[in-house]
Fold:
Amino acid sequence: MKTEAEIKHALREWIARASGKIDARNLSDETPIVEQRIISSLQVMDLILFLERLSARPVEVDRLKPGVFRDINSIYSGFFHSGSETE
Structure:
């Protein structure tokens, strides 16, 4: 099992790569990634696929909570910290 720091680092790297607009070092855990158009709403589907690989479990998209993709902290809390997006 990966640590919180490892998971957040992987998320930061994926978002920076997918975006091509920001360096991972300039992406904080609180940066609003969709609101600031770092990734598009269309890229969220690719992010979901990445989350499935990273968490080694499927994401039930019909049970996602609003705001789960707001920033790295929200993604971590929704998918990795004591439960999942389906709580």
Notes: The chain has one domain: 4-79. The chain has three helices and no strands.
